[in-house]
Amino acid sequence: MKILVTGGCGYIGSVTARFLRNNGHEVTVVDNLSEGHRGAWDGEFHELELLDREAVHHFLDGHQFEGVIHFAARAYVGESVEQPLRYWHANVVPVIFLCEQLEGVPFVFSSTCATYGVPMTETLSEDHPKNPVNPYGNTKLAVERLLRDRDLAGHGSYAALRYFNASGAEPDASHGEAHHPETHLIPLAVQAALGQHGPLTVFGTDWDTPDGTCIRDYVHVLDLASAHLAALKRLVGGGASGAWNIGTGVGVSVREILDSVGRTTGSDVPFIEGERRDGDPSMLVANPALAKAELSWEAEWTQLDTLIETAVQWHRAHPQGYSE
Ligand SMILES: NC(=O)c1ccc[n+]([C@@H]2O[C@H](COP(=O)([O-])OP(=O)(O)OC[C@H]3O[C@@H](n4cnc5c(N)ncnc54)[C@H](O)[C@@H]3O)[C@@H](O)[C@H]2O)c1
Predict the structure, then answer these.
(1) What confidence tier does 323 reach under pLDDT thresholds 50, 70, 90?
(2) How many Å apart are CA 82 and CA 233, to the nearest integer?
(3) Cβ of residue 187 lying under 6 Å from some atom of ligand 1
(4) pLDDT of 245
């Protein structure tokens, strides 16, 4: 397949782009490099600002794609609370510009478990009520609805993949997570253990969970990559549109992550006990049954230490991330 990957110089996009290429697909990456890294992707690349309608249309006029996988977005929850307009602009407008020129082309979209808001059940199924608690989640849910409307009008199918916590790196340590600023637990814990970063702050140790820390569902970035190919194949094969949780179904606490990082690095993770953060649910865990049934997808990286080991190797090999 000839596939357009937006945001393909970012963390999940670059790993997915390589996964697609390794599976025999022709991949074109576009990215404005605002957060991404040129060194993260060595295939066909076009520097493109997706907020520039004319540039997007001009680019798409000259190319034909059988599918698009749209990763490009701003993804800092705290920043979205402070700058909601920026998030509505950055996360919704590019989808409109792309869809204007991609009539009938299947669209795979990076959605998020943040579309659910505060969980009312122990694990989250796709039919759980959607009440995002921050602008980031609102923008992602808005795009899901935009894509559903496009589909209903007969202008192209879509798959909204609601990722839980993306984690880990390529097993050969060649590519991994390099956000600036980094806000995700595993890279911060690994960097703290390796002495590349100061102590980690644990946001709340008095939650209603077995060890008092928050529980999340950590899904390896290569498992995310395979979910995108499975979703795109379904759409290209004429399968119905929909939204699918992409998670392991297993909840892991912050303390369990710190213990695992300690074991895999051989060093304790220095940390500070901080206050709870507003809007943080105590637990966010996927029910991934629908993705298994409809996409024939399930997470393979289910051993926590093995998953964390990939992140440790990446940070050891690239203490400064990508060198641009
Ligand atoms: N990382 C996670 O745990 C997680 C969880 C749920 C959903 N997501 C979603 O997955 C996607 C990828 O996440 P990531 O962690 O790889 O993020 P990332 O920031 O590493 O990658 C996003 C890429 O998009 C590019 N980009 C942003 N705005 C652009 C624009 N206007 N024009 C062109 N390029 C633009 C950035 O330069 C960057 O390379 C995002 O949509 C994010 O919301 C991530």
Answers:
(1) confident
(2) 38
(3) no
(4) 98
Q: In the chain, which residue ranges form alpha helices assigned H by DSSP?
A: 11-22, 53-61, 77-82, 84-101, 135-152, 185-193, 221-236, 254-265, 289-295, 304-317
Candidates 11, 87, 116, 136; catalytic one: 136
Q: Which atom of ligand 1 is nearest to the CA of 48?
A: 33
Instruction: Please tell me if the CB atom of residue 112 comes closer than 6 angstroms to any atom of ligand 1.
Output: yes
292 has a pLDDT exceeding 80? yes
The answer to whether 220 and 310 have CB atoms below 8 angstroms apart is yes
Instruction: Select the CATH number that applies to the domain covering 2-166+220-246 from these four: 3.40.50.720, 3.40.50.1820, 3.40.50.620, 2.60.120.560.
Output: 3.40.50.720
Q: Count CA atoms closer than 13 A to 280's CA, side-chain side.
A: 18
Atom of ligand 1 nearest to the CA of 12: 16
Q: How far is 246 from 227, CA to CA, in rounded Å? A: 7
Paired tokens of 64? 């034909």
Q: Where are the domains of the chain?
A: 2-166+220-246, 167-216+249-285+300-317
Stated length of the chain? 324
> CA-to-CA distance for 224 and 124, rounded, in angstroms?
18
167-216+249-285+300-317 fold: UDP-galactose 4-epimerase; domain 1 (3.90.25)
Ligand 1 contact, 36 CB (< 6 A): yes
User: Is 136 designated active site?
Assistant: yes
Average pLDDT, the chain: 97
Give residue 279's pLDDT band: very low, low, confident or very high (50, 70, 90): confident
Cβ neighbours of 217 (radius 10 Å): 26
255 pLDDT band (50/70/90 cuts)?
very high
